Amino acid sequence: MILKSQVEWALHCCAILAGLPKGRYLSTKALAEFHGVPKEYLSKALQSLSQAGLVHTTLGPSGGYRLARTPDELTFLDIVEAVEGKARTFVCNNIRANNPCRPQGYCESAPCAVARVMWEADEAWREKLRSVQLSDLIDTLAKEVPAELWKKSFEWVLERAG
Amino acid sequence: MILKSQVEWALHCCAILAGLPKGRYLSTKALAEFHGVPKEYLSKALQSLSQAGLVHTTLGPSGGYRLARTPDELTFLDIVEAVEGKARTFVCNNIRANNPCRPQGYCESAPCAVARVMWEADEAWREKLRSVQLSDLIDTLAKEVPAELWKKSFEWVLERAG
DNA sequence: GCAAATAGGGATATCGTTTATCCGTAATAG
DNA sequence: CTATTACGGATAAACGATATCCCTATTTGC
Ligand code: SF4
Ligand code: SF4
């Protein structure tokens, strides 16, 4: 069980978009080139962000993406769920219904204990992701990324932002 | 991203094995029939439990599986990791290495902030699973499963336990 | 108005994992 | 000795993730 690589891409793209000056847009082409990933496929991830309402888009030359909210209103969970979906990672196939001892027509009132524990764990995962904002990531990166590289990357992006 | 159905099977099998009298064994065949899942494939899940040291096995007629520890020494995490593996669900493809602004020969000292947050969430998921013991599950099931069905299932298992 | 660039979406192909089955081997109870 | 079992390897089918291609509508700059 492994998350899509698109999740990593989407998170990185949002981090870049967070540094974009108000009103500017950055294209799929630029984002793909910056991260060294296939443009067409990255496009699908960005479309997921768009459908989830996390980013705004414009068409035409100088078009592209920008964040739809401020970085402190965007959580990791927003981004992860936009790409990976909101479905729980544990699906119950209700195998208890196959118990040969079961009376005919017996009907489960509620999801069983196994499923509930697995879903609580899933929720713990989501809760952790919900607790980290995009702005937290930016703060950390600003501290950890060497100043020189940070500045050059910023300029690289600005040159291509429409 | 979805967990293998084998995870559900393994959890249910362990719950059944927990009710087995000391020294008795239950075969793959019985477990597969009880849960209504393919015997050959369930066998793979049980082998995973065996390799992880969570269950003991014996060969021959009246052979099968029993728990290697008491139910309060077995956590959900033990069982889930035996089947699903211990690998983290977020893999870092190090796409920051593709940043065109990066100086030649630049070397990352540590995993980046994105990966760390995702790994913390992964750990929160595992911590939750670690906090629930198999004995907790049995307690809950004993309360929720109708007494009649519980008793009949127990007898069904005993008839087939070697 | 026109040409270039863009997001969006559908169709399709490739690849790897999950799911499932089959068979041969070694061990064990009766 | 026979029947039954766990175990492991080989293999196939089904499915989802990855990746590419192409067409459309829209917008910008000229
Ligand atoms: S016991 Fe729970 S997880 Fe298992 S089949 Fe029933 S509802 Fe699903
Ligand atoms: S920023 Fe983090 S998650 Fe992204 S490629 Fe680098 S190490 Fe991996």
Write the H/E string of chain A, N to C. Answer: HHHEEHHHH
Largest sheet: spatial strand order of chain A:
1-2
CATH architecture call of chain A: Orthogonal Bundle
Separate helix tally of chain A: 7
DSSP E strands of chain A, number: 2
Going by CATH, what is the homologous superfamily of chain A?
Answer: Winged helix-like DNA-binding domain superfamily/Winged helix DNA-binding domain
The name CATH uses for the topology of chain A is: Arc Repressor Mutant, subunit A
Count of discrete domains of chain A = 1
Oligomer: homodimer
Global structural class of chain A: mainly alpha
For the largest interface, the chains and their residue counts are: A-B, 58 and 60 residues
Could you say which overall geometry of chain A the principal axes of the C-alpha atoms support? elongated
Strand share of the residues of chain A?
A: under 5%
CATH level 1 class label of chain A: Mainly Alpha
Protein name (chains A, B): Rrf2 family transcriptional regulator
Pfam families (chains A, B): Rrf2
GO molecular function (chains A, B): DNA-binding transcription factor activity
GO cellular component, one term (chains A, B): cytosol
Note the main attributes of this structure.
homodimer; 162 residues; mainly alpha; Arc Repressor Mutant, subunit A; two-stranded antiparallel sheet; 7 helices; binds iron/sulfur cluster; DNA-binding
Description:
The structure is a homodimer of 162-residue chains. Chain A has helices at residues 5-18, 28-35, 39-51, 76-84, 113-130, 134-144, 147-160; strands spanning 55-58, 64-67. The longest helix of chain A is centred in the last third of the chain and has 18 residues, at 113-130. The model of chain A has no long low-confidence stretch (mean pLDDT 94). The first copy, chain A, is elongated. The first copy, chain A, is mostly helical and 162 residues long. Chain A has one domain (3-158): Orthogonal Bundle (Arc Repressor Mutant, subunit A). Chain A has seven helices and two strands. In chain A, α2 (28-35) crosses α3. The first copy, chain A, starts with a helix and ends with a helix. Chains A and B meet through α1, α2, α5, α6 and α7 of A and α1, α2, α5, α6 and α7 of B. One iron/sulfur cluster binds at residues 92-96, 111-112, 114-115 of chain A. Chain A binds a DNA duplex (30 and 30 nucleotides) through residues 2, 4-6, 25, 27-29, 38, 40-41, 43-44, 46-47, 50, 57-65, 162.
